[in-house]
Amino acid sequence: MGNDRPRVLIIGGGFGGLFCARRLGGVDVDVTLLDRAACHVFQPLLYQCATGTLSIGQISRSLREELAPHPNVTTLLGEAIKLDPEARRVTARRPDESMYELDYDYLVIAAGMRQSYFGKEEFAAWAPGMKTLDDALSIRRRVFAAFEIAETLPPGPERDEWLTFAVAGAGPTGVELAGQIRELATRALANEFHSIDPEEARVLLFDGGDRVLKSFAPALTDRAARELARLGVEMHFGVHVSDVRRDGVTVSSKDGGPDRDYATRTVLWTAGVEAVPFARHAAEVLGAKTDRSGRISVDADLSVPGHSEVFVIGDLAGRDGLPGVAENAMQGGLHVAGCIKRDLGRSARKDFRYRDLGSAAYISRGHALLQAGPIKLTGLIGWLGWGFIHIAFLTGVRNRFSTIATWMASIARANRSDRTFILGGSGHPEEPYTWQSAVHQGHHASRENSRRDQNAG
Questions:
Q1: How far apart are CA 455 and CA 457, in angstroms?
Q2: CATH number of the domain residue 237 falls in
Q3: What is the 3-state secondary structure (H, E, C) of 167-232?
Q4: What is the pLDDT of residues 385-405, one digit of tens each?
Q5: What is the spatial distance between Cα 143 and Cα 341, in angstroms, rounded to a whole number?
């Protein structure tokens, strides 16, 4: 690549970053796409991967493979950790913790959001979120291992803990997870165990609002609530999860009622999002305003005020209530690419206009919600609409065909074809045989070190 062409650095390989890179493919610029995992993940279907319906390969694709047709686009593995706006340079960290630097003429921040625990980061040790492939595999391990561990226990409170699943947050992800776990218990696993009855598994859904899926029309959310109740999901509104621990949660009422404890070994967290650390750092060094969740205020063209060479897209862009959905990121990525092309052609940039193409949420097999302007669909028709809308946005023809085949097969049968989970099987002491994820192990190591320090003192 020549050194005299403008350099565009894109942070994040989600929908926004990918669509921006694609649009700039073939344009007279050098594009570098930096991503922590070097793959594009279709986040709206993560819960299908977590509950065994879809495999990793059906909801993700290598960014290098995806962008191979564009010789002016380079994909690099690494995590952005530092921004120097004066030098127009970003420092990235490799997985081995070594560093390297990338220079830019245009910077596109599409790093997305991460799960928020509202200042109680210790909850992450026991309540994984649902934002990455690692999260999905961690949840798969926890959910399927819970049934397997329960099978080894005699009837009683300890077995009941393993057969109780708590979900914090009744937005689309929380509702989809809750419905999938009950569907898993009553269909796919119903006749596969001898000691336990999977259908007795409890799924508790907690939310601070007064209904599920608050972004949807009330008539649709009422239908969703009825379907969840039919599946056996126990819904609790006007509450928030105030404590998470190894063997349970504490739930506090927003109206001042008494706290309640629930014994459970599986807690899943979908209650909030916040900016990733690099985004907060970038906002600080750029002198940009942020909201409480860390979204960065941007001008009408999605550039940062005072830094026309820096753009923020997707759910990090804090402007006019832009939603944190894939369609916003896609449109933002295409818009920013258009702005860069206009700059190169010495024409004026256009303002970003988000076009709401609707929302969809999966409740159970044969039942989903679809809301697009005046169109509101539920039940089987909503489910079919949900499926084809999601499949249409999957990257790569192979992904679409594979997902269509799996999804259509699930219409006729309740089987889930990708239920493999890994508990650590090398036998090495540093890779213990456990249902816990790395964050759990790190949490325990930290607590053990603290105990040792106290004892030593």
A1: 5
A2: 3.50.50.100
A3: EECCCHHHHHHHHHHHHHHHHHCCCCCCCCCHHHCEEEEEECCCCCCCCCCHHHHHHHHHHHHHHC
A4: 888 887 777 677 677 777 777
A5: 47
Q: 132 with 233, same domain?
A: yes
Structural tokens at position 49: 């991967």
Please return the burial class of 365, using the count of CB atoms within 10 Å of its CB with bins 0-12, 13-18 and 19+. Answer: middle
Residue 42 CB burial class (10 angstroms; 0-12, 13-18, ≥19): buried
Judge if 313 and 331 occupy the same domain. Answer: yes
Q: Is the pTM of this model over 0.85?
A: yes
pLDDT in tens, 84-103: 999 999 999 999 999 999 99
What positions carry a catalytic annotation?
Answer: 176
Give exposure, 296-309, as e/b (b: 16+ Cβ within 10 Å): bebbebbbbeebeb
Which stretches of 35-74 are DSSP H helices? Answer: 46-50, 56-59, 63-66
Q: What is the DSSP letter of 97?
A: S
